[in-house]
């Protein structure tokens, strides 16, 4: 049996087909390409029960991943993160079945490792010699580290105020790193101008290559498997470039076509910060695409994306599942980050905090009744954002006394 049942690539706007076994970027219409699989072949080759006995990494779903040969897999053990029940915090919010998918436990400490693992593996398999990308921090760190594992070069550009830890990860991985006096879009323009001068280097900016989304979609497969191959009622996702929510929706559609899940799809919720909320603004207007968000800024750095290339795919996923889009303030998301740590002992990232803050809005508005299975994606470890927790504690003299 084939290791992968990858069939072809498809333009996300026009449906035009493209060759999968060549290095590809955007379609001629400037839209992301989506990987398509021979799902009839997958259905005959493997069952959910067989998958459950495999190694607990995202590669357990290799039939619906793009890497052709197991020898070309570049892995650091990513995937199969815990799905944690949150009873105390759930009671606080009036949610009887609240869950968190904790992506802070994957290599590099964020969900970005999923996209990097699959994207780098496929790039190396297709003969790419190096990768280049703009980043808000965590994606660049993950791709630099996986590129190092694969023996590829990496060129990374990130805003100057990106988290310092992500810059240090890039430097440690041997990446060619540049700080940019601007936002991620400004870094993207510099990368796009540099790549043509570097033979063998691929621009792997968000959705400008087809396979990052394939790594991210495994979150959807894992959620279904961890629920016993049924689906929760609601999934909340912090949305910047939107690859995660697009990938989860893609996984849901694939699993439904495979017959691995049935019934209504989860309502998908795109969560943003009020300081950068292009998807929320578009959703509130009923639009199919967003417009660039002015003066974008939020402490949840990973979702500071003023205009996402795949915005129409995010909105399609939200509309198709009767979901919604919610924006919260920085104060709200930081408070939720702290509350969850206090209630449940899980130190989450500020982007994850945004989702928990959004729960309060959805519960108070009645959009959530309280008895649904609600899954929140925490996309990273809180320890990568130490500046989000003020440190103001007493210093005692050595001969002093604790009050």
UniProtKB/TrEMBL annotation:
Residues 74-380 form the Tryptophan synthase beta chain-like PALP domain. It comes from Amycolatopsis camponoti. PANTHER family: L-THREONINE DEHYDRATASE CATABOLIC TDCB (PTHR48078:SF6), THREONINE DEHYDRATASE, MITOCHONDRIAL-RELATED (PTHR48078). The lineage of its organism: Bacteria, Bacillati, Actinomycetota, Actinomycetes, Pseudonocardiales. The keyword Lyase applies. Its EC number is 4.2.3.1. GO terms for molecular function: L-serine ammonia-lyase activity; threonine deaminase activity; threonine synthase activity. It is an enzyme of class 4 (lyase). One of its GO terms (biological process) is L-threonine catabolic process. InterPro entries: Ser/Thr_Dehydratase, TrpB-like_PALP, TrpB-like_PALP_sf. Its cofactor is pyridoxal 5'-phosphate. This is Threonine synthase (EC). It comes from the Bacteria. Keywords: Lyase, Pyridoxal phosphate. The keyword Lyase applies. Pfam families: PALP (PF00291). Gene3D superfamilies: 3.40.50.1100.
